[in-house]
């Protein structure tokens, strides 16, 4: 039972909602004023409304009782402090269903819950009785079926509906053999039916015959009959309904179904129809086989078998989403549309593809779900294009920041050496200035290429990761101090050599900046152990790692370390180093994640992300 609580006292409202929610049958929502209540009820009708009497000193009950103007209005219960009998009288006069005293006691919320349940049950029963009475009145005023009584093969009684259908006055029909009105080809059906029922071999029967009216027009009637006894004599009583239009509609429907199947089969998307309460496929087009690489026939026997092709990281989430949709339908709280996005791997293929599934509940005239229509679209090309655009925009946006970050080091070296050359009149320092300028030029060219050429990784060459790591360490070791770098056996991959070197360089600088500073603090405390940076291959050579024996990365910030501008060094850090690492990894189609190391920080780069649950892409 969906209950709407209207109370402008937040604390009281929260306590009331909490108490009522303990009742398994109640689902309570709270709003602060009558206008909001009317809007909420208009958007999604509630079974009962519980309200205060005044809001900000103004009586709001009249406004709230406008819900009586809606179809099947819910009961309204006044929940307020009953300081005056006039309030009770005024509330009932205004049309509330019940009044409950809002005393600060747990028992009162139990009373309120009981009164709400009673009011909702009474309202539902009243609605059902009203509908029943409406039907009875409608049947009494104007029958929509023909009624007849036949004795000894002749018409004993017909109602006005049936006589009008035949085109005769009632007294022109009574007394005549029923077969007078049936086309000759169908008379044998009527004779056989009447004979069997008159002699008691069949109690009831239903069949369809064609009759010809006074004007000679043909009408198809669905006849039902029941054998009974009147005044000791056997008679047949029953109904007759004009099904001419229905039979024609069924013919057109069969034709429409054939056309619909042809249209659906020609759509580029996968289309399926399921039963309403569980995933039970009743139809699926052939596009499933084209897109997913699997025959459709097993899906009729085991619809959930398609989950075998869903990416392992998305499988449980998709299964839960589908279960929740069917739970909504069973609970009667169905949405207009459900949408799921997931990855799948076609059978016999190692390529990951993206898809979106839109499930639309199909409703009958009563609003009940009859089937689920699903459409699954392959989004791989669109998502790839969007990612390419996003990456390109990100590279262009980060252009200046990346240049600033990577140029800062060699620029500082060049400035310092130039000052020494001037002060000491020693030209040997100019060699260092020249090397720093070459490094600045390399960085500018690499970053310009990264910003402009979104497909540059396709021109990759064979790169020894061990050589790239060694080159990167040479760039960093001059400022490393008492730090040791151990580079183990690493795989050879297709990659951009310059960017791969810069990837290692930024990871090394990250370790030196963070781990070395903390190591210095540890040395001051008497811990003189050496800082070691290690580089090695992951199991099965699926990637590589860079780790140090520093203080590590707290779990609370691991999800943020690759964010642009994030730094734990305050004004001393730019927060771009690991962002550049992530960009380089992304450009190669790899993934990078922060992992738990034996000690210190550990970064793992994986060449193949499939099956790596929880990886940071």
UniProtKB/TrEMBL annotation:
Keywords assigned by UniProt, alphabetized: Kinase, Phosphoprotein, Transferase
Enzyme Commission number, as recorded: 2.7.13.3
The keyword Iron-sulfur is annotated on this UniProt entry: no
Gene3D superfamilies from the UniProt entry: 1.10.287.130, 3.40.50.2300, Histidine kinase-like ATPase, C-terminal domain, PAS domain
Membrane-crossing residue ranges in chain numbering: none
Residue stretches making up the Response regulatory domain: 2-117
Domain of life per record: Archaea
Any single Pfam family the record assigns to this protein: Response_reg
Record-annotated PAS domain positions: 152-201, 256-329
Molecular function terms from GO: phosphorelay sensor kinase activity
PROSITE patterns from the UniProt entry: HIS_KIN (PS50109), PAC (PS50113), PAS (PS50112), RESPONSE_REGULATORY (PS50110)
Location of the Histidine kinase domain: 402-611
Domain PAC: 338-391
Catalytic activity as recorded in UniProt: ATP + protein L-histidine = ADP + protein N-phospho-L-histidine
PANTHER family the UniProt entry points to: PAC DOMAIN-CONTAINING PROTEIN, PHYTOCHROME-LIKE PROTEIN CPH1
Protein name: histidine kinase
Organism of this sequence: Haloferax denitrificans ATCC 35960
